[in-house]
Amino acid sequence: MSLAAMADPALRAAGVVGIWDTDVPAGRSVLDAGAAALMAGDPRLAGQPLPMEIALGRLHPDDRGWVFGQIRRVRRTGGPFAAEFRVLDPAGNVRWVLNRGCLAPDETGAMRGLGAYIDTTDAHRGPFLPAAASDGPAADPLAEAADHAMRAHAAIVRSENARLRLLVDMLLLETGRTLARRRHP
User: Where is the PAS fold-3 domain (predicted)?
Assistant: First the structure.
């Protein structure tokens, strides 16, 4: 099997729910079926240019203000975008989603963006690494620290403090590297 044929199942296994393509001047985003189902609540909206309010229709009410604010900012300035927030599925259950992408001028100079939605719900249900995944005892302090750092990361992203965001990103990176070195010296 070719790598290209394995890409979609591998991305799904990694939690990628769907992708988005944004035409900033038009104020519209096009979602694939997975993104349309989770974010807009209707997979039949896939492929249609949608306004932000519909494309993010399942966004948790407590997260709408700050998420829309971050999106509006990056639509003005361009650059990378990352935000982790909650969405409500049709049954009213909370799912956590990491939205990552980048906005940049296209060949005509118009701002466009591409990105993906990644389901991170499992990371919010327990420790960052299950006890069985570590070489140490069930109460591994570094795994516990990673779990707290993930929660801190989500809060700092919402605070929009760039310096703290850089610091918490560095903390997560080094914690992850340290945990990986333990498993694969």
Answer: 56-110
